[in-house]
Amino acid sequence: MSAIRDFFTRLFGRADEAPNRKAKKAATPGLNPADLSAEWLIVGLGNPGAKYAATRHNVGYMAVDDLLAKSGDMLEPVTGHQLSAAQLELGGTKVVALRSHTYMNLSGDPIAPLAAQLGVAAENIIVIHDELDLPAGKVRIKKGGNENGHNGLKSLSERLGTRDYLRVRIGIGRPPKGGSIPDWVLAPVDASAELDSTIATAAEAARLIVAEGLNKAQQEIHSRSK
Questions:
Q1: Which residues does the Swiss-Prot or TrEMBL record annotate as the active site (predicted)?
Q2: Is 52 annotated as a binding residue?
Q3: For the chain, what is the domain count?
Q4: Residues 177-204: tens digit of each pLDDT
Q5: Angle in degrees, 0-180, between the axes of helices 151-160 and 108-118, rounded to the nearest 10
Q6: Does 101 qualify as catalytic in the annotation?
Q7: What is the pLDDT of residues 204-214, one digit of tens each?
Q8: Is residue 151 part of an annotated ligand binding site?
Q9: Are the CB atoms for 97 and 68 separated by under 8 Å?
Q10: How far apart are CA 156 and CA 187, in angstroms?
Q11: Which domain, by its residues, includes 148?
């Protein structure tokens, strides 16, 4: 399944599943944050809603969905927080994958309080996001550094009080000369085998960081495309 088709299926469900999905939603108001336990957080950045779902700015959302697709876990709203989360294990390590219900420029507002509540330090928070300064299709991992104008990262740095969280950067390239950056990042990303591979690589990068550590994850992911 392509990254975009998978994203929409997980966001809205299939038509033949709609009645059961609605019934489950009515019976399940959301996850109790007290029931969540994590050594790591994996955060996919993006904007909520169908209008933005398949845009370049939402590749972080897509990567979290790819990560969860391996185990069949689903994001669920967390009671008292403007975000959805899923509890999972990667290599025996407890992880909470999540995404905010706020718009990109307010991403840190719900994420930082949940991280504090779960006792997860910034160095154990992995943020998957779109990156203008990388060519489309390239994935890179780094710790800390400037936000390079990315409003989601700016919000996270402000609310976490540090830049020292980990980033999985998904290249989307820059618009043609004279083009608008807001229009570029909010434009639909073309469905393709390359996109599917890029999203899968970003999800794998997050898994490797948790399982093998930052240095080994960088060596593995960066060796795939120079």
A1: 57
A2: yes
A3: 1
A4: 989 999 999 999 999 999 999 999 999 9
A5: 40
A6: no
A7: 999 999 999 99
A8: yes
A9: yes
A10: 23
A11: 32-221
